[in-house]
UniProtKB/TrEMBL annotation:
It comes from Gandjariella thermophila. It comes from the Bacteria. InterPro entries: Cro/C1-type_HTH (IPR001387), DUF5753 (IPR043917), Lambda_DNA-bd_dom_sf (IPR010982). Residues 17-71 form the HTH cro/C1-type domain. GO terms for molecular function: DNA binding. SUPFAM superfamilies: lambda repressor-like DNA-binding domains (SSF47413). SMART domains: HTH_XRE (SM00530). This is Transcriptional regulator.
Amino acid sequence: MGANHRSPRARALCAALREARIASGISQRELGRLLSITYTNISLWENGHRVPSIETVAMILAALRTSPDERQRILDLARNASERNWLTSGLAGVPQQLAGSTECERAASRITEWSPAIVPGLLQTPDYTRAIMTAGGRIAPDDVELRIMVRAGRREVITRVEPVEYLALIGENALYEPIGSPTARVHQLRHLADMAERPNIVVQIVPARIGWHPGLAGPFILYDFPDASPVVYFEHHSSGAFVPDAHNVSEYRKAIEWIREIARDPDESLALVNRAAEEVEAAT
């Protein structure tokens, strides 16, 4: 299993084990004593340097007295953890794909995202995120606030001391989509402009109505890692897919080059974002 210990599924499994232990209030040393395992091994598992067998995962979860639902979720991650491709689907897949994408963000050296219709999650303000999550009443209010907190925490990867390099390719329509109140939209656009000024972030706006290009097939994210093969991630309404296949990664790199060629350059993009904010503000 070691050959693929840095697959998105394996990263999500290791993060889930770490979070389950922390939630239980048990230290690595204490857990090691309970299982007669060195705490060094536990640290290697939790940090994604090794992947435990499903039998070991079951022992860990029993020692931590993890709830039945959480135990089942983590055991599902442990099954076939070494598989490179990973499809999550249905409501049960939502926390899994969230864990996978969060760990990919933390470990990446570069993230490239194509978002044709909305502002990307890493660049969203809490009010913008709240407007998306409360639309249609599909998410319980308590869950909405929890998810907003989780997303806010994920943004740390682009603002930390040694931030990840982030290229955001955003469809022009995303700047004008009426998500949230006018005030929330203005704040979102101002925030996007501020983030575009950071040295590790490049924002390029892709014009609408310019004919066919590969971005019209849908949004995607490319994660590059310093210690593992790159992965393409596709997120949909209640499912997601992580694809590390070399051919697909190569094709999506070509798609990124194509999209960048038709996109406005960073300076023009920043001017467009500021102009959109002014237009929304003037209309309120």
